[in-house]
Protein: Ribosome-recycling factor
Amino acid sequence: MSIADIRKNTQAKMEQSIASFKNHLTKIRTGRANPGLLDTVHVEYYGQHLPISQVANVTLIDARTISVQPWERDMGAKIEKAIRESDLGLNPASMGDLIRVPMPPMSEERRREMTKLVRTEGENAKIAVRNLRRDANDAVKKLVKDKEASEDDQKRSEADIQKLTDKFIAEIDALVLSKEQDVMAV
Structure:
């Protein structure tokens, strides 16, 4: 494995860490409705547990209401029950074959808790990126030790990997700041 391969693999893994972090952020509730919020809720469908998005059409009615339109008429009650029993604190209301899921307003205390959660997730993502930097630097040091690369290559590589790390950490900080503003907006 060459230094270029190590850098490419490290960058790909850091991008995966950012994608995972973004996925975690979509699950954190803000005052606004988001169809992605129901992605974690699973419903039983012919013996299998599937995400709601695979058995119904999930859309937004307005900024505070999600609508769930089951594809099969008899799935409505199961979907409603799954949403109610999830740990999201939502109370769906059935209107014929359409299920409305209003987003309750969040208290100031709850907003602060969510902000702390966002910061914790951001810190975890930064730790993952830093761990990838450490692994990449260790791999380069091993190449130098095995005399497959020079010490000058090692210094250049470490500087390059540090620039990459700084770029991804700045992106994480920007995502955290954006999500905090979303959570604190009334």
Q: What stands out?
A: The chain has four helices and six strands.
